[in-house]
Amino acid sequence: MPPCPHFDLKIVQRSKRQSAVAAAAYQSGERLFSEYDQKQKYYSHKSEIVHTEIMLPPHAPPEYADRNTLWNAAEAIEKQWNSQLARRLVLAIPRDIPPEQQADLIRDYCREFFVSKGMIADFAIHDKGTGQPPRPHPLYHAGMDE
To answer: For residue 54, how far is the Cα from the chain centroid?
Structure first.
């Protein structure tokens, strides 16, 4: 991947009252239901989302291709009050990468650094149309053991 002008990694933590379902709803712009707190997570007013995708390693249950199922399962597995539910990475795609190549670039990045290591990657590309570089938002869960 070419040099990146912005790179930010955050951990979604239960101890900070954060939710992997809410993070996934925000990044994808989808309405998701959290089984943990029995609330809808709704960010579908976000209009800058141009692509979303879930990438599974070969041993992952196929039902995890559904975003709501995936992130509710991650929250159910991680039971401790201080659980790390997911990792959220925000980076900027260099401006010289054409829009039609951006998803392939992020897909290759997620495959190399997450999926090939047994993790599930759920990514979205946000482009606010402001002339700033588009920002992909990979959200991944590291608890997927073979």
So the answer is: 8
Q: In 3D, which of 35, 1, 3, 11 has the Cα closest to residue 21?
A: 35
Residue that the structure tokens 């809410």 belong to: 22
Q: Which domain holds residue 79?
A: 7-141
Question: Which tens digits make up the pLDDT trace of 91-137?
Answer: 888 878 888 898 999 999 999 999 999 999 999 888 777 666 556 55
Between vectors from CA 76 to CA 110 and to CA 119, what angle results, nearest 5°? 15
Q: Which pLDDT value is given to residue 130?
A: 66
Count of domains for the chain: 1
Residue with tokens 């795609």: 93
Question: Which residues are CB-contacts of 117 (< 8 A; sequence separation ≥ 6)?
Answer: none
84 found inside a domain: yes
CA distances 146 to 40, 65, 110, Å, are 31, 17, 18
Residue that is written with structure tokens 């992909």 in the block: 136
Q: 131 by DSSP, 3-state: which?
A: coil
Tell me how far apart the alpha carbons of residues 14 and 9 are, in angstroms, rounded to a whole number: 16
The answer to the question of residue 146 being in a domain is no
Q: Give the distance from CA 136 to its chain's centroid.
A: 9
